[in-house]
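Tutorial sheet, problem 5. The two components below are modelled jointly, 606 residues in total.
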Amino acid sequence: MNISREKLLWAYERMRLIREFEDRLHADFAAGKIPGFVHLYAGEEAVAVGLCAHLRDDDFITSTHRGHGHCIAKGVDLRAMMAEIYGKATGACKGKGGSMHIADVDKGMLGANGIVGGGPPLACGAGLTAKLKGTDQVTVCFFGDGASNQGTTFEGLNLAGIWKLPVVFVCENNGYAETTSPRYSVSGQDIAARARGFGMPSIAIDGLDFFAVYEAAGEAIARARRGEGPTFIEAQTYRYYGHFEGDSIRYRTRDEEAYYRSLDCLQRFRQTVTA
Amino acid sequence: MPVITYRQALNDTLGEELARDPNVLLMGEEIGVFQGSYRVTEGLLAEFGPKRVVDTPIAEEGFVGVAIGAAMLGLRPVVEIMTINFILVAIDQIVNHAAKIHYMFGGQVSVPLVIRTPSGGTGQLAATHSQSFENWFAYCPGLKVVAPATPYDAKGLLRAAIRDDDPVIFIESLALYDTKGEVPEDDDYVLPIGIADVKRPGTDVTVVSYSRMTAVALQVAQRMEQEGISVEVVDLRSLRPLDRPTIIESVKKTNRAVVIAEDWYSYGVTAEIAATIQEEAFDYLDAPVYRVAGLEVPLPYAKELSAASKPNANNLIYAIRQVMRGTKRMR
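Model answer (structure tokens):
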């Protein structure tokens, strides 16, 4: 795979920043410094960064309640993000939104989203806008395995399909929708298989492997930019912390957590580039 | 001024706004090739093409969300929801997204979206096709809700809604589409959103109404005149923002008020208006505020049952007589 040294350094820095940011929030929440719901992205960094590595500033993303990683990968200012989470007037949304609603539209970040499944229609709206205006801007729609069961996701896939919208759907399957495994909640072979029914290319990839994400993302985004329509990527990943901070995490074992920590995306990135 | 139908006023305005602003586009089910279930978008696909008049699948939450995303990025979508009954599946996108994005994101972007939809019940369409949900949206900060009663207001308010930077729910009525009235030809004719209109001045009792009930109120006012009762009709035109001063000024003059709306009685629009009047004009009232609204049942199909469930002219006449006597209705 041909990736420039600059791109590799950028990607590692972004992934590292996300990890540090989330670890810091984890500690600050435990110390009682942060109110409300905070959903951390630690563990999933390779997905956001592998996708956003192919995006321009004028491309768009839609995000989820677990949106800090998407923001950082798309270039939202870290201080504005942290100030937002702390409820400050200097925050990205002047303290009106909080962790679940960080947005920076000038950076193409159309908003973290407190509603599971809220993003796909909005992503299609961004895609339709690009299409109607005749630009080659691409929109990446991040959502989780939980949102893969929401009607809005299916409606978004259908609309993107019939209108051939420049949208890349990225399902971050981190193993748990809040506390519920897709083994219980997802009917059918896997989530990626669902999208094929809408007539678009769809693949399931190892979302803990930055290079696998980068490669799949590159093809999907190039395809969208060429005006050939949407692609679906199911990135199988894992979140290190609970659904939200304060989650007792009784729905998974410590052994399972240790196993996924052994596949850590940052560590694998280092091993690959220094091998 | 030319006399045209309410439907024609809407159709003309949509066409004029499409021609004026390249960012305006129409979206909805059956609006293009089929020209609209109620023919409000007739001829517009032929004139403006499929990039400006976009037929959608039956997927209200999906395409309303698409319109919101497009509005965030500078387009000005005007969405048709075939009737307000079908808006319920889109309510998350409207309430949790369209209404909140401007404020919740610290003012970064606006959502200049219009959702046009007919509300209310006519023609025995029965329980799931005859409802009035405008109060659900009027309840929600971040949305504007307008409900014109005449072709004149329909044109001025639709222009205003399309040019407004906030999401506007634009309430129409099946029973009003064929009604006629004068409409200005002036290209710059726009009615400001949030201003009620005294459709008929009077001295004895204020009737507060909007949309189709304003048409009913005006007919009733004419009949009451023959009984020697002078009715002032305040047409709200906008439910949010609500023009409280115009209501209060009228009630302070007449000292009596009847509020009529097609939605259900409890928690409905009439309750908000009655509360406003008692808060701001209590000392001026010579009789309790009387509310006329829908009977609290899923609207039945059979003609007699359907008619008995909807507020009508006779209900309003009864109400006016009651407040003129200063007596309280037993409910």
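Marking note: The two ends of chain B are 45 Å apart (CA to CA). Full credit if you identified this.
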